[in-house]
């Protein structure tokens, strides 16, 4: 782990350990500190409770936190307090929803499984390198908790990324359907306008056709002689 992450984790856990004596400003800072975006996806992390605890404990923790960070309690830092309060409200809402609670707990199950794979790979690598593979650093409970915390955070981050991808796809599909519907509506409108104009111009077309026929007939008959009027009998010869 990098030094920056090590410092972040140590500082965060030290803050959590002293949670009972944190001031409102410190609680707000805990929830809004740089790097907290993905941490706040985990409602257990937000409310600082174990994932196996029941919802009643989550409610009690929410009440205790809300008394500290509610915007009305922090008029000099209302904007940040409002953001922090929204974060804990969302966390409690997640845990009060049975389906969401189950999914959040499954994140820990998945994280433990991922960590087990990582630890297994470390043991195999140590064995290949001719080192003692019976013990690795994650066998230390403190190191294991830290590693699990990292993997859990990644699991929640992966879930959020997947949700956003699916949401974007759904929005794109919705947009595509809307465009198709708009295009179909415009085609129907053009067809209806054409049919309406065609119907309204029916009499004009009929009149124009009649006028055309009449004019044509007159033109054809103009200057045309009667049948047989051009016949001329042969000249009579005078006989002696």
Structure description:
- This is J domain-containing protein.
- The protein is mainly α and 240 residues long.
- It is 74% helix and 0% strand.
- The protein is elongated and about 150 Å long.
- The relative contact order is 0.06.
Write the layout of secondary structure elements.
Blueprint: H1 3-17, H2 24-32, H3 36-39, H4 43-47, H5 55-69, H6 78-96, H7 98-128, H8 141-200, H9 202-221
Helix pairs in contact: 2-6, 5-6, 7-8
Count of discrete alpha- or pi-helical segments spanning 4 or more residues? 9
Helix content: over 70%
Can you give the mean pLDDT?
A: 84
What is the 3D shape?
elongated
Distance between the termini: 148 Å
Structural class: mainly alpha
Please report which band the strand proportion falls in: under 5%, 5-15%, 15-25%, 25-35%, 35-45% or over 45%. under 5%
**Rg, nearest Å:** 43 Å
Poorly predicted parts: none
Give the strand tally: 0
Summarize the main sheet: none
* Helix/strand order: HHHHHHHHH
Structure characteristics:
240 residues, mainly alpha, elongated, coiled coil, DNAJC8
In short:
This protein has about 240 residues and is an all-alpha fold.
């Amino acid at each position: 782990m990098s030094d920056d992450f090590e410092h972040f984790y140590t500082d965060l856990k030290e803050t959590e350990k002293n949670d009972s004596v944190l001031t409102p400003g410190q609680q707000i800072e805990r929830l809004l500190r740089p790097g907290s975006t993905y941490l706040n996806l985990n409602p257990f992390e937000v409310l600082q409770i174990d994932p196996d605890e029941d919802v009643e404990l989550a409610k009690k923790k929410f009440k205790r936190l809300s008394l500290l960070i509610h915007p009305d309690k922090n008029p000099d830092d209302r904007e940040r307090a409002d953001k922090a309060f929204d974060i804990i409200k969302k966390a409690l809402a997640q845990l009060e929803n049975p389906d969401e609670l189950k999914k959040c707990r499954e994140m820990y199950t998945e994280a433990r499984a991922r960590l087990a794979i990582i630890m297994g790979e470390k043991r195999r690598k140590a064995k290949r390198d001719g080192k003692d593979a019976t013990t690795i650093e994650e066998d230390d409970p403190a190191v294991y908790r830290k590693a699990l915390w990292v993997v859990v955070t990644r699991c929640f981050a992966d879930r959020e990324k997947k949700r956003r991808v699916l949401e974007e796809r759904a929005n794109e599909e919705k947009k595509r359907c809307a465009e198709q519907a708009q295009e179909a509506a415009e085609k129907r409108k053009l067809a209806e306008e054409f049919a309406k104009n065609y119907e309204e111009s029916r009499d004009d077309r009929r009149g124009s056709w009649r006028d055309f026929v009449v004019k044509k007939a007159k033109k054809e008959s103009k200057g045309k002689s009667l049948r047989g009027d051009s016949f001329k009998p042969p000249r009579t010869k005078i006989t002696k």
